[in-house]
Amino acid sequence: MVSFTNYKFSRIALLLTLFSLFIPSTIKADKKPFARSYTSYTLPARALELELWQTGILGKADGNYSRWKPRLEFEYGITDRLTGSMYLNFNEVKSSNNNFGSSPFSLSTTSFEFRYRLSNPEEWFVDPALYFEIGYGGDKVEYEPKILLTKRINQFITVINFNSEIENNISESENESAFEFTAGIAYELSTNFSFGLEFRNDRNYKNIYSKELNQASYLGPTISFQTEQFYFVINFLAQISGSPATHTNLDLIGHEKYEIRTILGVEL
Q: H or E segment at 32?
């Protein structure tokens, strides 16, 4: 169940979105057919977007567990090939009848992201881009480089992301790391609608990739609605396998059973 504070954040985010719809814009909103993977495409130079994310992570081996991770993001086209973003990441955990603790709604990290497109769309066999993100919150610093690959074939668009995540806890001199592989395929039913399928595999490691602790794979549908001013994406994932397995071949200690994500993007 989402707390009152989280609900209040959602109301403020909705008001910001509605206000932005009345701001004139000459540049169309960016297309986002996927919720788990980035495409290689970047914003046009001087384009500005507001994105509102909500990610829910649900279900452990025992008891009740839900984690909500809202994000407020501003994305700007520095050049036609380079896009920069600044976003605020929030976190809330509700847990009972298990060994996982609860956490009140709070700002967890502030992040800065850069995406650089290496070629023009469809210039090469695949469209590649590089991604780098750095986040800071309290005594924690996070680094996240990615390789983004996109291929468009008529009404179909496919995407693959290779993601590395390193987290440094400065006060405790500890490191954590993870590797994530995501892939997706979407079909454009019209200029406004697309329907797709996304896959995600997440692996957590001790220190910096010294020993794998756990891993899980997810699969689920994604629906995207697009207009000239805004887009809305919703994705649902269910864990299909994991290790070490705790229940019917699933890892429900290091990972969760279900994930849901929505993204609302508005051109400013």
A: none
Is 69's pLDDT higher than 70?
yes
pLDDT in tens, 1-14: 445 555 555 555 54
CATH of the domain at 79: 2.40.160.40
Q: Taking residues 204-226, what's their average pLDDT?
A: 96
Q: What would the mean pLDDT of 146-153 be, rounded to a whole number?
A: 97
CB 8 within 8 A of CB 2: no
Tokens of 41: 């495409």
Provide the whole-model pTM.
Answer: 0.88
What gap in Å lies between CA 125 and CA 115, rounded to an integer? 20
Per-residue model confidence (pLDDT) at position 6? 57
Please give the angle made by the CA atoms of 62, 92 and 261, to the nearest 5 degrees. Answer: 85
Domain housing 149: 4-267
Buried b (16+ CB within 10 A) or exposed e, 239-254: beebbeebeeebbbbb
Count of CB atoms within 10 A of residue 153's CB?
9
Alpha-carbon dihedral sign for residues 148, 160, 261, 135: negative
How far is it, in rounded angstroms, from Cα 158 to Cα 111?
Answer: 27
In this predicted structure, the answer to whether residue 21 has a pLDDT above a threshold of 50 is no
Q: Please give the Cα distance from 43 to 40 (Å, whole number).
A: 10
- For the chain, the domain total comes to 1
> Under a CB-based contact definition with an 8 Å cutoff, are residues 59 and 97 in contact?
no
Q: Annotate 220-257 with three-state secondary structure.
A: EEEEEEECCCEEEEEEEEEEEEEECCCECCECCCCCCC
